[in-house]
Write a structure and sequence with these properties.
single chain; about 675 residues; alpha+beta; Isoleucyl-tRNA Synthetase, Domain 1; 6-stranded parallel sheet; binds 5'-O-[(L-methionyl)-sulphamoyl]adenosine
Length: about 675
């Protein structure tokens, strides 16, 4: 394992909005895996980054009034942007790629040209359906109820000259890869891919667009930009230096050991990606793991639904490590899981405060209280050799069967046996991409150690130090050792807190290694133990939920565009005067711009009287006249008639006005078309 290379990636994120806890989930999982491999001594390359091209980004930038590059720069590099979030979450990526980086752009152009030159990319006409939010093309047969099969939203008709990739040519090889190897995991995803995409017949894939420009230009055919998924998927290789001079470790790290991806992008990674690599004659990644989604109230989180969970708030409130741990411990990695603040607090309280926190604080407190902070020499020696053979033979989930209460050293045997087997079961789970199982194994030992405290009752032993002092020291030493081993195996998940744990139990770097996690009795017996700050304080559920709600409400408010409203009038108007205003429902029969006026629109309105009413309104800046014909509006009809630009205006149309980002906004009050003209508003 020493120096064995391990290349792991996260998906590269769309910087179209700030990232939420769902995005954080995959990156934390990848980070834990990368740290685990480093702990084992592997030479790890951990890549993450951002996928910055495509129509969605172009549209968002236009809405924001900035260039696409300025738009993505802000979300990637700006305050509380992607890079800030990974720093906060203690993500240890070795490299960060942005698909707008020059080296990537030119490499993708070379890749596209190569597939074109070898005949796998050809020119045709694209007719089909396009899902804008997902940036995905679909054929009619792939739609579900006429909607995008990934996100369930409406799709648009699309027809344009485009380049196609001969995906169909690779159908058999991809099927074989999926069905007959362990390339795609978990296995249930294989069935989904084969049934939904391969069995119905793989069609060639449209890989260029001409209807927008924010993409990598096809250098041999101006006007075309490379389909964003072709651009994005090759990031895994360009970031190592494939077809560019920026980096030089493609030969060392490619093929990737595993791509971690969310379930909705498994199709791209397990069908399109291997097919393109086959076309390029490049080795295939060893594994793609499709993890599940974090759901909120049973549905997917999304900015447009307004139900995203902000990792900044949670990390600030509960700590980065507690949040990282919760994500990995609670949700089986291959399945969907329902996120809730209650579950988060409950997990922190049960596992971290009660189980782990208590084990460490009780143990260190007792070493302090009974031995002044350092145990006596000789306390680590295992005084009963009988269980050593058993210990070696046991896995962590198997307990020694019979314990003779008169022979307390058998409790020691159980603890040591479990600890001895733990590293093996933990590694098997991690290697199978099941971090939740690995954590659950560690917690079995933590729970066992807490039980050992109750069984050995150190406070009773302490009553007669002369008779039981040696036994007491040994019990406490065993507890420190169990804590040390758990600390090592938890460190990929909670790196900072485990450093604190090591300081508290007096474990130096030489006994924090992967090797030392499989050996009992390595902690120096007389090491200095310090009862430090509580690693994971217990959280008051009700109070925390209330505070979270307030913080979330504040954040939602801060995310709203700064809106300025006219101050409300304080001077009151008497009811009779108010009732003299005659507000009526009117229907727009015709609407046109008033000649020589930049502002005025002339409305011909049905006001229910049988005679047309004419009103002029200075709202041309906000509406094109033809869009208002047929609309049902509200007018005050008993204002004195007024002449404007030589035309009469008999009344006024009602609108809602406010200022947003310093810009005046106006919305005509529009009513349901079922309401008849002339109806009075009161
Ligand atoms: N840009 C593409 C990936 C290209 S990789 C060559 C993309 N980006 S994304 O920002 O939309 O999503 C990135 C990852 O976040 C995906 O794997 C996606 O599944 C994951 N998640 C987004 N929301 C999620 C949850 N609510 N829960 C878990 N993961 C989620 O797709």
């Amino acid at each position: 394992m020493e120096n064995e290379k391990f290349y792991i990636t996260t998906p590269i994120y769309y910087p179209s909005d700030k990232l939420h806890i769902g995005h954080t989930y995959c990156t934390v999982a990848t980070d834990a895996m990368a740290r685990y491999k480093r702990l084992q001594g592997c030479d790890v390359m951990f890549l993450t980054g951002t996928d910055e091209h495509g129509q969605k980004i172009e549209d968002k930038a236009r809405e924001a009034g900035v260039t696409p590059k300025e738009f993505v720069d802000n979300i990637v590099e700006g305050p509380k942007g992607v890079k800030d979030l990974w720093k906060l979450m203690n993500i240890s990526n070795d490299r960060f790629i942005r698909t707008t980086d020059g080296y990537h752009v030119s490499a993708v152009q070379k890749i596209f040209k190569k597939m074109h030159d070898n005949g796998d990319i050809y020119k045709g006409t694209y007719k089909g359906k396009y899902c804008k939010p997902c940036e995905s093309f679909w054929t009619e047969s792939q739609l579900v109820d006429g909607k995008c099969p990934d996100c369930g939203r409406e799709v648009q008709d699309a027809e344009e000259e485009a380049y196609f990739f001969r995906l169909s040519k690779y159908a058999d090889r991809v099927r074989d890869l999926l069905e007959n190897t362990d390339f795609l995991q978990p296995r249930s995803r294989v069935n989904e891919m084969v049934k939904n995409f391969i069995d119905p017949g793989l069609e060639d894939l449209c890989v260029s667009r001409t209807s927008f420009t924010w993409g990598i230009p096809v250098d041999f055919d101006p006007g075309h930009v490379v389909y964003v998924w072709v651009d994005a998927l090759f990031n895994y290789t360009t970031a190592l230096g494939f077809l560019n001079e920026q980096y030089g470790d493609y030969a060392k790290y490619w093929p990737a050991d595993v791509h971690f991806v969310g379930k909705e992008i498994v199709r791209f990674h397990s069908i399109i990606w291997p097919a393109m690599l086959m076309s390029m004659d490049m080795p295939l990644p060893k594994h793609v793991f499709g993890h599940g989604w974090l759901l909120l109230d049973g549905g997917k989180m999304s900015k447009s639904k307004g139900n995203v969970v902000d990792p900044y708030i949670l990390a600030e409130k509960f700590g980065v490590d507690a949040l990282r741990f919760f994500l990995m411990r609670t949700f089986p990695f291959g399945s969907d899981g329902n996120f809730s603040n209650e579950l988060l607090i409950q997990t922190i309280n049960t596992d971290l405060a009660n189980d782990l926190g208590n084990l460490v604080s009780r143990t260190t407190a007792m070493v302090g209280k009974y031995f002044g902070g350092a145990l006596p020499a000789g306390c680590g020696a295992i005084d009963d050799e009988r269980f050593l053979a058993d210990a070696a033979a046991q896995g962590s989930s198997v307990e020694l069967s019979a314990v003779n209460p008169a022979d307390p050293s058998l409790y020691d045997a159980q603890l040591v046996a479990m600890a001895g087997g733990l590293r093996g079961v933990y590694a098997s789970a991690m290697d199978a991409f099941a971090p939740h199982t690995a954590l659950s194994e560690v917690f079995k030992l933590i729970q066992r150690a807490n039980k050992y405290i109750d069984e050995t009752a150190p406070w009773t032993l302490a009553k007669d130090m002369e008779a039981n002092g040696a036994r007491l020291a040994h019990v406490l030493y065993n507890l420190l050792e169990a804590s040390r081993i758990c600390g090592i195996l938890l460190s990929p998940f909670m790196p900072e807190s485990m450093e604190k744990l090591f300081v508290q139990i007096g474990a130096g770097p030489e006994v924090q290694t992967w090797d030392s996690a499989a050996k009992w009795g390595l902690l120096p017996e007389t090491t200095t133990v310090t009862k430090g700050e509580n690693l994971f304080p217990r959280i008051d559920m009700d109070k925390a939920l209330e505070e979270l709600e307030a913080l979330e409400a504040e954040a939602r408010k801060a995310a709203l565009p700064p809106i300025e409203l006219e101050p409300q009038l304080t001077e009151s108007v008497d009811f009779d005067t108010f009732c003299k205003s005659d507000f009526r429902v009117v229907k727009v029969k015709a609407c046109e711009a008033v000649k020589k006026s930049e502002k005025l629109l002339k409305f011909t309105l049905d006001d229910g009287t049988g005679t047309d009413r004419q009103i002029l309104s200075g709202i041309h800046k906000f509406y094109e006249p033809e869009t208002l014909v047929g609309k049902t509006l509200v007018a005050i009809v008993n204002l004195p008639p007024r002449k404007m630009m030589g035309q009469m205006s008999c009344g006024m149309l009602l609108s809602a006005v406010h200022t947003e980002h310093g810009e005046e906004k106006l919305n005509l009050i529009m009513l349901d078309d079922a309401i008849p003209a002339g109806a009075k508003l009161c």
